[in-house]
Design goal:
Strand order of the largest sheet of chain A: 2-8-7-6-5-3-4
Structural class of chain B: alpha+beta
Radius of gyration of chain A: 22 Å
Number of strands of chain A: 12
Distance between the termini of chain A: 36 Å
Oligomer: heterodimer
Number of helices of chain B: 5
Distance between the termini of chain B: 48 Å
CATH architecture of chain B: Alpha-Beta Complex
Structural class of chain A: alpha/beta
Helix content of chain B: 40-55%
Shape of chain A: globular
Largest sheet of chain A: 7 strands, mixed
Number of helices of chain A: 14
Low-confidence stretches of chain A: none
Mean pLDDT of chain B: 94
Largest sheet of chain B: 3 strands, antiparallel
Strand content of chain A: 5-15%
Radius of gyration of chain B: 14 Å
Chain lengths: 391, 126
């Protein structure tokens, strides 16, 4: 059976050119970068080349501002805990949004248990944070603002540059989680006016297990991992050289392909959105109609539950995702959709399709061919649809 | 995160038994709510103290639909007293088990059944 992968926001297949770039670093150039003989130097050179290329890609002034980590989750933990712990003399207050990834939200909750104060800002119906709300939430104890660049569920792109300007005016550190955006839309740390930025390689056709935190020069931050002197003493642990090389290559390819891919994926996205809204009654788009990631489609198909649609789609070879409680271990609908004011039953009916480089227009056509019948079948089972009077 | 379902769960999800509602049902049971994401409606027809017919309509995940289907199969032909002792565990076991986070779906099936029988008793008194 043909399989159609439409969950690129979850993870991507490693690009063949990235695999090729990584391969020598598993067994030929396997050295520990902290050693001074030739193997170590090869490894060191490879790391520093990747670091320079990535620094350039995100607009960092110096390669040393890039700290490699094990992934987006570690980067978010490092940014938030690291800045909170290093700046306790300045205050104890953090501002974030209610639609952040759990890597940010649960880190903030952890800090709350340690005595820090956290403000979770609301969003509007599109999932947008209002920069004026950020401004109003600032107190003389605020030491960090953390707002994501683009949301992982609904793809809404946040007004980061505006928040950055406010943070800078007030002299408060500003972190953004750019895990969903890097490699897909332009990311420039100066344009966004951020001091810290998290990213992860496996969201842009790189390998899993490697991420980065951009730390603007002069930012006071405590390391999470203590040990050796790696990463300028900011992240102990022997470097994941193949991962770093792969991340570097993935950024290089993203720099080359982003513009064209962005246009192509936006076309597929809009075709699928319009197709679903046109073909399926009682369906709605979640998130911003235009200010969203090129590959993100999030819709609710009312009166049917997300997981049951996913199971039916999977039987047809289509791999997608949902904000339904039933796809998580907690029995609550997506915190993102809930924060956007989407009612619980509609949030449970949400479907997310995220496109990537191997998808074609044929994939969109296939989804549009099978989804209406799946929904029709499940609606026949649904008491909510019945109550609606099948009007 | 998608749970792994048994073949029986998938069979009942893909080929639900007793789907629909019963006009002039002798008892209608409801369980669940939109917040938790599962809503189950169960309809029974009772003849001579025996459940002659059982049907369901469910909004919910694969496990919710499969447990609804299974519970309707299990109660058919049973006396009201026999039906009352069907537990959520029995429904889950009949489906060759449910993933732990989906056990609440079997609880819902038990609740919907009890609610349908309660409704039957209420109507009978009138």
């Amino acid at each position: 059976m043909r399989r159609i992968y439409l969950d690129h926001a979850a993870t991507t297949a490693v690009h063949p050119e990235v695999v090729q770039a990584m391969l020598p670093y598993f067994n030929e150039r396997f050295g520990n970068a902290s050693t001074l003989y030739s193997y170590g130097q090869e490894a060191r050179d490879a790391i520093e080349e990747a670091r320079s290329n990535i620094a350039l890609f995100v607009g960092a002034k110096k390669p040393q501002e890039i700290v490699f980590t094990s992934g987006g989750t570690e980067s978010d933990n490092f940014a938030i805990c690291g800045v909170a712990w290093a700046n306790q003399k300045k205050g104890n207050h953090i501002i974030t949004s209610s639609i952040e990834h759990h890597a940010v939200l649960n880190t903030c909750k952890f800090l709350e248990r340690m005595g820090f104060k956290v403000t979770y800002l609301p969003v509007d119906g599109y999932g947008l944070v209002d920069p004026q709300d950020v401004k109003k939430a600032i107190t003389d104890k605020t030491l960090l603002i953390s707002i994501m660049h683009a949301n992982n569920e609904v793809g809404t792109i946040e007004p980061i540059a505006e928040v950055g300007r406010i943070a800078r005016e007030k002299g408060i550190y500003f972190h953004t989680d750019a895990v969903q955006s890097l490699g897909h839309i332009p990311v420039d740390v100066d344009e966004l006016q951020v001091d810290l930025l998290s990213a992860s390689a496996h969201k842009l056709y790189g390998p899993k297990g490697i991420g980065l935190l951009y730390v603007r020069k002069g930012t006071k931050i405590e390391p999470l991992l203590h040990g050796g002197d790696q990463e300028n003493r900011r992240r102990a642990s022997t470097e994941n050289i193949a991962g770093i090389v792969g991340f570097g290559k993935a950024c290089e390819l993203a720099g080359r392909d982003m513009e064209g891919e962005g246009r192509r994926l936006s076309f597929l996205r809009d075709k699928l959105i319009n197709g679903i809204l046109g073909k399926i009654q009682f369906s709605q788009l979640n998130g911003h109609p235009t200010g969203r990631l090129p590959g993100n489609v999030n819709v609710s198909v009312k009166y049917v539950e997300g997981e049951s649609i996913l199971l039916k789609l999977n039987a047809k070879g289509i791999c997608a995702s949902s904000g339904s409680a039933c796809t998580s271990s907690i029995l609550e609908a997506s915190h993102v959709l809930t924060a956007m004011g989407v009612p619980p039953d509609v949030a449970h009916s949400s479907l997310r399709f995220t496109f990537g480089r191997e998808n074609t227009e044929g994939d969109v056509d296939f989804v549009l061919e099978v989804l209406p019948d799946i929904v029709k079948g499940l609606r026949l089972m649904s008491p909510l649809y019945q109550e609606k009077g099948e009007s | 995160m998608m749970p792994t379902y048994s073949e029986k769960v998938m069979d009942h999800f893909n080929n639900p038994r007793n789907l629909g509602d019963i006009e002039n049902a002798d008892g209608v049971g409801k369980a669940g709510n939109p917040v938790c994401g599962d809503i189950m409606n169960l309809y029974i027809k009772v003849e001579d103290n025996r459940i002659a017919e059982a049907k369901f309509k469910t909004f919910g995940c694969g496990a919710a639909i499969a447990t609804s289907s299974m519970v309707t199969e299990m109660v058919k032909g049973k006396t009201i007293e026999e039906a009352l002792i069907i537990s959520n565990r029995a429904v889950a076991e009949a489906l060759d088990g449910l993933p732990p986070i989906k056990m609440h779906c079997s609880v819902l099936a038990e609740e919907a059944l009890r609610s349908a029988i309660d409704d039957y008793f209420k109507r009978k008194k009138k």
